Amino acid sequence: MTGTDAASPVPPAASARASWRDSLAVYLQPRVLIVMFLGFASGLPLALSGSTLLVWMREAGVDLGTIGLFALVGTPYTLKFLWAPLVDALHVPLLSRWLGRRRGWLVIAQLLLIAAILLLALTDPARSPLLVALGALLVAAASATQDIVVDAFRVESLPENEQAAGMASYVAAYRIGMLVSTAGALFLVSAYEGAGLTRGAAWMWGYCSMAALVLIGTVTALIATEPEQSRLADQATSGEGAFKRVLHAAIGAFSEFLTRPDAAAVLAFVVLFKFTDAFSGTMTAPFVIDLGYSRNDYAAIVKGVGLVATLIGGFAGGYVARRYSLVASLWIGAVVQALSNLAFAWLSTVAVSQWALALAISVENFTGAIGTVIFVAYLSALCKNPLHTATQYALLTALAAVGRTYLSAGAGYVAAATGWPAFFSISVAMALPSLLLLAWLQRRGHFAALGLVKV
Questions:
Q1: Under a CB-based contact definition with an 8 Å cutoff, are residues 145 and 83 in contact?
Q2: DSSP state string for 64-128
Q3: In the predicted structure, residue 242 carries a pLDDT above the cut 90
């Protein structure tokens, strides 16, 4: 035989190159790229009613206790399952006929989001905190509605061989969107101040710029095609009235899930898995400002080193989940994201230093991205039926937001009472309930019953 014979073994180096090309090609598939840009659109608004708003409030002189209570404006993220059946069952007038059910809802949610961000831009945290709270609440409501649609679109549109690339791209882009609305927004505010605007005007135009970036998601929705699963599910219920479709979406989603074995423990685990991250994350921005770092210090680190750590962490999470079983991956994600809080506890005890801040932010972003990829894969594995994908996924992600919204509402008071080193040590301990539930569900065979989960 010659070296070109078909029976000759493929050299390992050539096989590795071919595998790498195949993997890269999957990330360039149109559906994966659409999901990536929608991930950016989902991640962008979260910080605008969260950490970025808290920096604005802290600079305006708002006290830590009030800042901590502003975690409650995230309530729509925890209640979005209540209107998710409307998204699953109803059509947006004109837009759904033109674009399809999922894309019609995407466009209307993004238009509402732009209006809400512009309203928040016109508020003043020092003079009218209640108006700020209302604006932030509207931003969170529009953002939560967008999340409902994007999550359903992602689950329904990607075929099996693109799920891994789609998941990694979605989470990486989501985190980039968050970084743009944190570090990017802070840089813009500083640039506007440097151009001669007052601090209040600089914040206003910073938020207006973020509203303009929402159009990236709108353009993506217009370019995308309606998922085939969504179209078929829509046809299957086309003969039913609007009320009946909503009722079926709501009852079907909840009853199917709640009749599963150990449903209550699963829901509690969903609530608590990211709680350690959420409890500390609520106060990260005020913490950095209180240590003496400037707004630009924080923005530069988050935008630069933090972005790199996020991207590496996202793909590291995908590698972990491919390399290990789902339950082993969840153990790894739960432990590393809890221990990352010790980096901030250490940061609070050292002198103000750019490299120290970079290290702490990098550790948090890297481990947080690992935990997020693994957790999103777990949530996706729990959602099976295209008739109510949006409702089930909204229920699960709403529960996941409970830790960030309600359980973390008192984080500011804890930080004020204990000091920063003790606060972040306490944040590590907040992971214990989720670890106990993880062990219990593992013994009950919950994760094995889900079967093979490709991440």
A1: yes
A2: HHHHHHGGGGGHHHHHGGGTHHHHHH---TTHHHHH-HHHHHHHHHHHHHHHHHHHHHT--TTT-
A3: no
Q: Is 342 a residue whose pLDDT tops 90?
A: yes
Please give the average per-residue pLDDT across 105-116, as a whole number. Answer: 95
Amino acid 22 reads D
More reliable by pLDDT, 201 or 61: 201
DSSP per-residue codes, 390-434: HHHHHHHHHHHHHIIIIITTTHHHHHHHH-HHHHHHHHHHTTHHH
Which amino acid belongs to residue 171? Answer: V
How far is the CA of 41 from the CAs of 97, 139, 171, in angstroms?
23, 13, 11
Spatial distance between the Cα atoms of 53 and 188, rounded to a whole number of angstroms: 14
C-alpha angle 317/42/272, rounded to 5°?
A: 55
CATH no. for 28-449? 1.20.1250.20
Residue 234 confidence (pLDDT): 63
Percent of the chain at pLDDT exceeding 90: 31
Integer Cα distance of 240 and 286 in angstroms: 51
> For residue 371, what are the CA distances in angstroms to 282, 332, 368, 388?
17, 8, 5, 26
**pLDDT for 23 beyond 60:** no
